[in-house]
Write a structure and sequence with these properties.
Distance between the termini: 41 Å
Number of domains: 1
Order of helices and strands: HHHHHHHHHH
Structural class: mainly alpha
Largest sheet: none
Shape: rod-shaped
Radius of gyration: 35 Å
């Protein structure tokens, strides 16, 4: 092809057709420039396609991680709500004038109300981008970045609350109940699992060491139960607020963005 154009130029020069030669040369230059521009545009399209695919991949990963975190958050909401009910039941049964007819349920509630971990966000895909400072270049929707930052700041704040104040209250409560109930009972409760405690298990617990009446007669027992109940009420409220104000809006924004990009 190059030799073909060269022959045309040589023929025009030999025929002393300078004007035509110049027009032809300019036309050839124009074609070269157009070819370069087209090549650059194709390259840009390829880069944009790669960037878009990378963005979609990250958004899918982040969406999956937020969905998993939301499921964990739902579990935390249910767990703390159950513990609030356990606390109310204990406060009712712990009154000295109340008739304690279900010792098994009483012990079950006493041990489980002071147990539980914390909800902690885990979004490695986004944290991977943040660590390289690439989140703005990859995720073009700034609203998503803003929601992610708010989500992480909020959930990390909750984690701090649980690990500091929450764990301090749990530690104090568990130390208190061990005055009247052997810590070995907790191992038996885990072994029983969702089946719960039956009255037959009480004999086994007695061999480990339990003092229900001593617990009920301790003036500090009511305070300890109320402290744990208040903690779980606060956590339940915060978890629900986190779900409604941060997690759900973020999930909606991620899904909308992915749908708009994959069309």
């Amino acid at each position: 092809m190059i030799s073909f154009f060269r022959k045309i130029r040589q023929k025009l020069l030999q025929q002393n057709r300078v004007t035509r030669y110049l027009v032809y040369a300019l036309g050839e230059i124009f074609l070269v420039v157009v070819g370069i521009l087209i090549a650059l545009q194709v390259n840009n399209w390829n880069e944009e396609r790669k960037d878009r695919k990378r963005e979609i991949d990250y958004l899918y990963r982040i969406l999956s991680e937020i969905e998993r975190d939301s499921a964990s958050l739902h579990s935390s909401i249910n767990l703390t709500s159950n513990k609030v009910e356990q606390g109310k039941r204990l406060l009712s049964l712990n009154k000295l004038d109340s008739n304690l007819t279900d010792s098994a349920q009483f012990i079950w509630d006493i041990f489980l109300i002071g147990r539980g971990g914390s909800y902690s966000p885990y979004i490695p895909a986004y944290q991977e981008l943040v660590s390289t400072g690439d989140e703005v270049n990859v995720i073009h929707n700034k609203a998503i970045i803003e929601l992610l930052e708010k989500y992480l700041n909020r959930t990390n704040g909750l984690e701090s609350f649980v690990y500091r104040e929450g764990e301090q209250r749990r530690t104090e409560y568990n130390q208190f109940i061990q005055r009247y109930f052997s810590a070995l009972i907790m191992d038996s409760i885990w072994d029983l699992g969702r089946k719960g405690i039956s009255e037959e298990d009480i004999d086994h617990f007695k061999s480990l060491g339990i003092d229900i009446e001593g617990f009920r007669n301790d003036a500090n027992a009511g305070y300890q139960i109320r402290s744990m109940t208040a903690l779980n009420m606060e956590l339940s409220r915060l978890y629900r607020q986190n779900m409604e104000s941060y997690s759900e809006p973020l999930l909606e924004q991620l899904r909308d963005e992915i749908n708009s990009l994959v069309k």
